[in-house]
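TA notes, week 10

Several of you asked for a full example with nothing omitted. So below is the full record: structure tokens for the whole chain, then the designed sequence directly under it. When grading your own attempts, check the secondary structure regions first.
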């Protein structure tokens, strides 16, 4: 069963690799392996994978190191099917409704913080290739993948990005990617349709060492606030994007059942 699935995902990866190009930026979910959201009946340690995913998303299960083997099939279907896209849409749409409702001073100080991986850009092609954790996570390989700069946009997030720009809110990308990926990240963002931003902040390890994402992101947000910016919103796929200090007036959590960053 698992072997079949991995082969299926490798097949998806090949198809995806040809359709994830710049000319087709919207084609991030080209395949529907099954109609619906996959085998929700699959279970891990007595709970269904759907319940596992919910517990992960609401931060009851924390510091997990990978998708349980029993749930890879389920997560693969979730990510590649319509469900992930719909969940992302629900979050981004709500973020826009909130932003639209604000009566903000027109002083050029309103910023919205966007995380990058699994928020603005999707590394789904990588996770497809590693069979959603069927092959062990390899940081070197993941960084090599990021260095290629080929990650497609998450389409629903890009819609929010464009709407916020129209509202006159400035965009700040704040990512745990390290500064050696600056060139690849700039190229990837532009290729994926994120053409402009006020700031792009990558992790400078000489400054932040190996501090956790919560500590690093809080420190960078504090700098922004001290520079006089007003963080009106903050969106990410990880709890570490939206916990800590200076989190912003409202935070929005996108789904991510693939990895956990503390
Ligand atoms: C991770 O990937 C790199 C590059 O492919 C390889 O050299 C290395 O041996 C891998 N590490 C592990 C622990 O598998």
């Amino acid at each position: 069963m698992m072997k079949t699935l991995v082969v299926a995902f490798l097949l998806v990866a090949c198809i995806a690799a040809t359709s994830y190009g710049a000319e087709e930026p919207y084609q991030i979910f080209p395949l529907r392996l099954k109609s619906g959201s996959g085998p929700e009946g699959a279970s891990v340690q007595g709970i269904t994978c759907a319940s596992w995913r919910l517990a992960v998303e609401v931060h009851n299960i924390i510091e997990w190191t990978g998708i349980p083997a029993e749930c890879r099939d389920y997560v693969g279907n979730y990510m590649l099917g319509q469900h992930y896209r719909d969940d992302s849409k629900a979050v981004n749409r709500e973020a826009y409704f909130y932003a639209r409702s604000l009566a903000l001073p027109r002083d050029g100080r309103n910023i919205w913080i966007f995380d990058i991986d699994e928020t603005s850009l999707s590394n789904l092609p990588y996770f497809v290739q590693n069979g959603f954790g069927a092959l062990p996570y390899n940081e070197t390989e993941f960084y090599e993948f990021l260095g290629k700069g080929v990650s497609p946009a998450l389409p629903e997030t890009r819609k929010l990005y464009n709407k916020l720009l129209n509202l006159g809110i400035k965009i700040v990308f704040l990512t745990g990617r390290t500064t050696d990926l600056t060139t690849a990240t700039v190229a990837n963002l532009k290729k994926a349709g994120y053409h402009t931003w006020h700031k792009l902040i990558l992790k400078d390890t000489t400054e932040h060492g190996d501090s956790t994402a919560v500590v690093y992101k809080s420190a960078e947000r504090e700098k922004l606030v001290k520079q006089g910016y007003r963080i009106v919103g903050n969106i990410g796929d990880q709890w570490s994007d939206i916990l800590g200090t200076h989190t912003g007036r409202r935070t929005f959590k996108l789904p991510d059942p693939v990895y956990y960053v503390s």
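The first strand starts at residue 43 and ends at 44. Use that as a sanity check on your answer.
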